[in-house]
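Subject: Sanity check before I submit

Could someone independently write out the structure tokens for this chain? I want to compare against mine line by line before I put it in a report. The sequence has 426 residues.
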Amino acid sequence: MEVNLYFQYRLTDNISVLGAKGGTLGTNAAQLTHLVRYCYENNISFLDLNDSDFFNFIEHLKYGKKKLSKHCIKIRTDANILAIGRLCLDFLSYLGKKHFMEDFVSESGCIHGKRQKNKRTNRKYGECWHHGALPLPQPTQYRSAISDDYISELYAATNAIFKKHDSGTFQEQYIRERRKIMLTLLEITGGRRQEIALLDISDIHFRSDKTHPHVVLRTLKHINKNEFRVVPISDMDASAIDTFIKAYRAKLFKIYKGKFIDDNALLSSSTTGKRLSENTITQEISILARFAGIDAQCCPHMFRHKAIIKWVANILHRYQLSSSDDFEQGLISIDGLKTSILQLTGQKSLASLNHYIGNALTQLKNGIYPLSNIEIDLIQIDGIKRLLNYGQDVDGNPLTDLDIAKAILPHLRELNSTGRGSLKLP
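---
Independent answer below. Compare away.
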């Protein structure tokens, strides 16, 4: 009962409930079960807990029931223990106030917890709970961006998996093409895995007289649950997505008409027709990475890091900004730049971009983006480069020069005809 009341209260903070496991609310519920289980096993109510009990609870989190006197091995990381402990302190404080025990969790209360400033400046709320039993916060460790070589190997694996087993059923063809589109979406949108899973067919907008191709992503981790952002994409990527929808996805639901319910999801299961979950996207990347023989970490969020670094690098180059200070000053002085970069990345604050700037500057110094000197649409160039780097036929063989020429010449001509290119074409 008390737990239900607490989460009803948390819902007023507009925390996320999206995803297969209930978003942030589901994560918090799983974290709080540790305290519920501890109190049940020790036959003690929440409001009867004292400071010594909380110390014992944190020790239980660290080592579990099998704590050895000589060799104590932690079963959880300090970061996990800190997150669980802070949530439990917040829950107990809420419970105390509901029962008119305002100081139940305080420096002089039954449990000696206190609120202190959170040193992470990219969070809106600058305070968090702390207690003497909790481990000290550690510096944030960021995932690295995925490399171009790894992306190329993942694309190659989409074909090679079924080629190796000499399989060619339609379901296998569908899975192969779905994996390619999944990789493309992760790469070009910089979307979080759940944002990619939530994409509907109607979120893909193709070129028209009024608009350029773009993807509309639902932005997660924001207070406003109905916040969306627009990410422009190349004509070639839009064409690939369109082909997948019409030639593969539509056929899947035609074959299983009456068995599958079409919920308009862009990425659907080949066995149930249901929308892929964010965990399935992670599993798909893991399957491809294993098959490709990639031993290093390889996960969906690394695509997001790569995309943001690329966007930041383009801004730095376009406006001739050579340092983090220049970047911050540029966001202030250049009209609309701050809004556009936050809208593109889906970040809450500019402080979230700080750790990307150094990587972007390094890439520019190494000459990673020489094409940005040419007055041509970089989004279209990225689409063409993707075909050149990862282009394969259905059997996994590299596309011929003629295949590539037929694919890219119409798009290059379109760039020139709209005044966005400066290449001489036949």
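---
OP: Matches mine. For the report I'm noting this point. The first strand starts at residue 114 and ends at 117.
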